[in-house]
Amino acid sequence: MGANGIFRLPEPVVGRLDLAGPWGEAIVHARLTVPLRTFLAVMSAVDSNDAVTLAPVLRTWASDYLVDWNIHDPDGNPLPADADGFGTLPFIGAVGMVTAWLRAAAEVDLPLGQESPDTATSGGSRAKPRQRS
């Protein structure tokens, strides 16, 4: 507890997402400190498999939580790490990225280097949270 009995929320954490399969070489950083309502909305949208529900939630996620990446189009031009760039990704890559983010955000409070019990489903990955400099 801080001065005067006040607890301050920790500084936001940005971490690298560990992506699976052919996306594993992509370097993607996203904000991992997230309000509970946002986390639950993204999780529910991904689980829904409903395009009408999923599309606006993913666009908001990319606008608010995607920080940067090293992803380029087939011609070698960098894609912006924002909602427009995210919207050009293949479906499997976009959903895989958000799924990796859900797992990483769920573990953000772990001390650096500490493993948690594996709660991932098949093909899951876990990010190693780190403070943004």
| Arithmetic mean pLDDT | 82
Shape: globular
| Helical fraction | 25-40%
Structural class: alpha+beta
Tell me the distance between the termini. Answer: 24 Å
The rounded Rg comes to 15 Å
Uncertain ranges:
110-133
How do the SSEs run, as a string of H and E? EEHHEHHE
Strand order within the widest sheet? Answer: 3-2-1-4
Give a quick account of the main beta sheet: strands, pairing sense, barrel closure: 4 strands, antiparallel
Q: How many β-strand stretches?
A: 4
The number of helical runs is: 4
| Beta-strand residue fraction | 5-15%
Detail the topology: elements first, then pairings.
Elements: E1 14-17, E2 28-31, H1 36-48, H2 51-64, E3 66-69, H3 83-86, H4 91-106, E4 128-130
Antiparallel strand pairs: 1-2, 1-4, 2-3
Helix pairs in contact: 1-2, 1-4
Structure commentary:
The protein is α+β, with helices and mostly antiparallel strands. It has helices spanning 36-48, 51-64, 83-86, 91-106; strands at 14-17, 28-31, 66-69, 128-130. It has a domain at 36-112 and 121-133. Strands 3-2-1-4 form a four-stranded antiparallel β-sheet. α1 packs antiparallel against α2 and α1 (36-48) runs antiparallel to α4. The longest helix is centred in the C-terminal third of the chain and has 16 residues, at 91-106.
Describe this protein with a few key phrases.
133 residues; 4-stranded antiparallel beta sheet; 4 helices; globular
